[in-house]
């Protein structure tokens, strides 16, 4: 082994050890699980796929839906693509392969077969099927190969279309999404946490024409730190993308984002975070960009890492899922209390607002009263949907693909959906006095670290404070409860039950 390579490996090991020691000091008794999550992020550490019994015990989905293990032992499986014939393609960057899970013709709830479709690739990630071609985004190039949907076989030679893509640093993955406009869109993450990139195609979405014989990438949108998930809204044909906010500014800042992507759009990074807030490291002197930077249409909680997204073809699903996208929250590895580790649904409202609700939770055990076992059993990555409406979710922590099907409502959905999230704070409202309600609301306020945004005594340095003043003159109890169900950004949507919203509103109106 060369001395240079030894130095590189030793440096990498030192960084990992430093991060683990930091996690030990920061997280205390949660260290073991958090260390595993960190190792999953930097080194591909994984755990065993859960059994169906564990799935039934751990996961919560809306009434009428059921989760099953569709495929297991897939290693660090990442992006998914469904073929027109029902085969599910999955990228495995660390293996350098694309695997195909054969369609379930015998209807036993499992793929009829699995096999490696492509091998020897350089960290393949994004996959897209377009007009009989399978496009693959490797870390350093984009290629394609003819794909016959009926047989599930590739044909001919693999063709490299775009060469020499930068894949150094933090976010080397590339994701793909084709548009009806004849272009293939390519997202590429930043090389760093926060820096000024030399390559304009990093921290950006680029595109090239599918019909070109010798395609060239052109920049489409910039200022996107790490937009892993992209999809087109079916009702307006607009491109949306998730984005991961920067690190090292505390537990709750900046928010992760969902952005509506437009040609030539600038989305802030590395100078502006979230909703027009200058970055404390690189924002000084760049006030001129505040009017240019496009704010997100929806903010996720900081560091919960939204990755893959998919607009759902609702079909036989309940009406609440029309104009809805599912987003995989990979989960935080760098905050004092873990967040994410679930799939959420985003619901577009007539007034343009986006409401976030839990869709599939249980990857993270947040209540110690739940069945014992690993605190974290999975980290969702990407989402695909079959012609029959079934949804498939990849998990690169346990190497699993889950299948979620809707078979009918077991109880009125509107009465239960959004109020079934497992939370660590239990609130009892029935028969509670006003004082008891306020005490219960104070516990919720403390649990979600609300003071870090609303009380200057607890806010982090360079963090704007939004005092909670004169709420009683602006809200009724019912009005404030409705606000908590659909908060105005940059406040994230917390998984509060109805009882928690009642108690928190009582506390806020009387504090």
TrEMBL record:
SUPFAM superfamilies: Cytochrome c (SSF46626), Soluble quinoprotein glucose dehydrogenase (SSF50952). Pfam families: Cytochrom_C, TrAA12. Keywords: Heme, Iron, Metal-binding. The keyword Iron applies. InterPro entries: 6-blade_b-propeller_TolB-like (IPR011042), Beta-prop_PDH (IPR054539), Cyt_c-like_dom (IPR009056), Cyt_c-like_dom_sf (IPR036909), Quinoprot_gluc/sorb_DH_b-prop (IPR011041). PROSITE patterns: CYTC. Signal peptide: none annotated. One of its GO terms (molecular function) is electron transfer activity. Residues 436-511 form the Cytochrome c domain. This is PQQ-dependent sugar dehydrogenase.
